[in-house]
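Blackboard transcription, Thursday session:
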Amino acid sequence: MKGLKTFQRGGIHPKGRKELTNTKKIVKADIPETLIVPFSQHLGAPAEVAVAAGDEVKEGMVIGKPSGFISAAIHSPVDGKIKEIKDIFLANGMKSKAAVIEKSEGFVPVEKKTQDWNNKTPEELTGIIKDSGIVGMGGATFPVNVKVSIPKGEKAEYLIVNGVECEPYLSADHRLMLERTSEIIEGLRILKKIVNPEKVAIGIEINKPDAIEAIRKKAAEEGFELDVIPLKLKYPQGDEKQLIKAVSGREVPSGGLPIAVGCVVINAGTVNAIYEAVVLEKPLYERVVSVSGNGIKNPGNYLTRVGTPVSALIEACGGTNGTPAKIVVGGPMMGFTIYDTETPVAKGTSGILVLTEKEVNAEKRTSCLSCGKCIGVCPMGLNPTKMFKFIDHSDYSGAMDIGLMDCKECGCCAYTCPAHIPLVQGMRLGKKMARKKVS
Amino acid sequence: MSDELKLSISSSPQIHSPQSTAKIMWLVVAALVPAGVWGVYIFGLRALLVIAVSVAASLAAEYIMTIVFKSGNTLFDGSAFVTGLLVGYNMPPEVPLYVCAAASVFAIIVVKWTFGGLGANWMNPALAGRVFVFFSWTSGMSKWTMPRILADAVSSASPDTVSGATPLGFVKTNLMNFTGTSSGPIDFLTSQGYPVHSYLDLFLGKIPGCIGEVSALLILIGGIFLILIKIVNWEIPVFYIGSFALLTWIFGGLNFGNGFFSGDPLFHVLTGGLMLGAIFMATDMVTSPVTRKGMIIYAIGCGFLTFLIRSYGSFPEGVSLAIILMNIFVPLINRLTQPVKFGRLPKEKKND
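(Written on the board underneath:)
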């Protein structure tokens, strides 16, 4: 396929495994009796706990208030009673306070009515997004109200929708683009009003031809000017910086934000959440999760309430198959393994993967062969092997000097490394130690 | 539910490509097999014995070193096997067995393990082993056998003039006392009664030489296989052979008393182990640069040095020495060819 856009430097082609779920319609997952809703489901400061044990809560009621500029509100996903507030471990290994909510008997989700939003100002719309606790749903969970507030003196030329979904196995965004096409277009109208860009574009990898077609058709039908850009398959194209490069040819400067090159990038799933928040007045407490992997009996896409334990979702898919080696929250390239299946689904949980030994392909680590493959695949143009050696010798500033902080842990290097060196783990450790030293 | 499951916890990425060190090494072995089979076919079972002894000595040395360094069993990662195999391929078929064993032992113990084992050596072990024995037992390393296929041709020609010389060595030694005119090496071989004088024979490997280096065709097939499965980068062989051929074409004719641009690159590429060196030895991951740019510089350096040694040195071949010399420059090349970081474009470019 010639002529398709993509980013230039590095990148890999892991097996997509999308076929496990990409034809499965989104179905509503059963709401469990007990939900565990963490107060830290986003990048930035955890939400301030606004309820106490014994309180009655309603679906969509605020239970956590944003506690800083970069923070997000947390809402109750069900009607029920707060059983307790306790500390739990999130999928990423961090500790967070969480509300354990007992669903009230006979709870039926309220049917939402559509509201007219056309007379609302951009500021009001941003306020709704903030109050609805909307964060980037691709996995980075950056609060969206911050993202769409263009700093003074900057101008957004491009509003880019991220429909790439380059992580293997995941198809939640793919299904959303197919099944909620008009909602996404409506969400884009809202975003366009807030951000006021010159151009609106959506980047979709060509392994989703039906989604490309559906979006193109719908946008034309509704007369919404949208540049649908099919992209060549390559991981990590769904990363903000790579997507901007692919779509606009611009490179976000090292350490800078997309707005520095006039771009705002919003994930397709997030656009749907913005639609729901503004048009249906429904805060973010529900999302689509791809449950997949060879260790799952019936993989599928589930509309899941935040706070649903992973075990409940796995059971909804008929349980596990064979001997699972890893349970991953998120995609296989950047997701986290969990050891406790009671870990809850959060706003940024795009997938639950039960992977078998064979899919994981773990092997014993050998010495570095200096093959240079990690350098060839690094989309940021870094030298992972050299940085790893610096970190291995506790020379964190040496690693910083050659761009440690530009690493975004996409995993291309560690995926490719024939010696099976845990390069990404090394980078994480290095960043942590380097920050410690600076502060 | 969690009681029944044994879950691994690991840092991302949670999946890995099917590649591994051992797989790479064994695939390299597989790619080397055809050339070796050809060598054994034309030089006889004695060649097989040389390869077997080289591999066995290499594995034995590796085993001893893993015990000395308490590094765990590394015999099955295939790297010692590859080293042994390449040592064997770089030996003349009639070499005394203690010579090839010594080359393997030197390669593994001195070149590989004194610097810390796999990945830490800065010189290609097999080549270093070969060069070590070449200078230690020069006569044993310079005894060449005519391929069995050529037995008839040899007996009909005057045996004294042809025994004990590779095409390249023959040209080199006999050209020194040559006073006539010749258009190039092939013409020279024909006029002096050397039994091989067609490019096809050179390409197929019907020539005397080291066991594994003679068949350019089979080495090429193995190399293309490795390039297709992305174990070998195409940059090194292409730029090595390319730069060498270019230099030979420009300056190679001078030795024959002809002018510039009259050299015979094809003859030089097909002889003297250049194909084996460019495809299997210069591309050794450990001792070649890590970036694309670096690989190209390194490969051109190899081509240049090979040309220099062949044309003006006292040895006919030069591939092993050229690669080893360039190995020494690899850390420097790496330092000077760091990748360009994303988002570090020059300012004026960023705004277009």
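Lecturer's comment: The mean pLDDT of chain A is 94.
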